[in-house]
Amino acid sequence: MPQLEANPGLDYQSQQYKDAYSRINAIVIEGEQEAHENYKQLAESLPEHAEELIQLAKMENRHKKGFQACGRNLEVTPDMAFAEQFFAPLHNNFQAAWAEGRIVTCLLIQSLIIEAFAISAYNIYIPVADPFARKITEGVVKDEYTHLNFGEEWLKANFEASKAELEAANRQNLPIVWQMLNQVADDAEVLSMEKDALVEDFMITYGEALANIGFSSREVMKLSAQGLATAA
Length: 232
Ligand code: PL3
Ligand code: FE2
Ligand code: FE2
Description:
This protein has 232 residues and is mainly alpha-helical.
C-alpha cells in the first residue's frame, strides 16, 4: 500500500520544507476562510437551503482551525499575504457574481471548482503528509465531498436553467485554476505532491461533478479542459 510507505528524503523539519509549507499552509487556511464566508453569503441568497449552508460554513471554519494547527505543529508561520493574492481572482469573481445575483456562478466557483481543487489537493497530500497533518486532512476531505455534493444537487435540480451560465462561468474561472496550480507547483513538489497528479485528479473530480449535474461526456471533456492547453 503506497500510503504506508515511508518517504525517505522528506524532512518535515528542513528549512526547504518549512519554507514551501508557509505558502501552501497559508493557501489552504485562506481557502477554508473564504469558503466559510462564501457559504454564509450563499445562505443569504438561498434561504430554502440556509440551514444546510450555515452548517457547511461552520465546517469550513473548523477546517481552517485544523490547518492552522498543522502549521503550528511544524512551527511554520503561514504567509497569509501571499495566500490572499493567490485567491484574489476567484474571490473577486465570486463577489462580483454574488453582487449581481448570479448564484449559478457562485456555486460553480465555490462548490464545484474550489471544492474539487481542495479534494484533489488533499487526497494527494494525505499519503505524504506528516502524521499530525495526515489525520487532520483525512477528516477534512470527507467533509469536502459533502460540499461538492451540495453544488451538484442544486445545479442538477436546476440544470436547464443553469446550463448557459455554467458554461460562461466555467470559461471565466477554470483558466484561473490552471494558473493557481502553476503558481503552487514548485512548492507542492517540495511537499512531494506532483503537479501532473494534481491536474489529473482535479480533472477527474471536476469532470465527475459536471457529469452528475447533467452534462454529456462530450460536454464534460470540453468543459473540464477549458484553458488547460494554454496554461500547462
Ligand atoms: C474549501 O473547503 C477548501 C478550500 C481550500 C482550497 C485549497 C487548494 C489547495 C491547493 C494547494 C495544494 C496543496 C495542498 C496541501 C494540503 C495541505
Ligand atoms: Fe473545507
Ligand atoms: Fe469545503
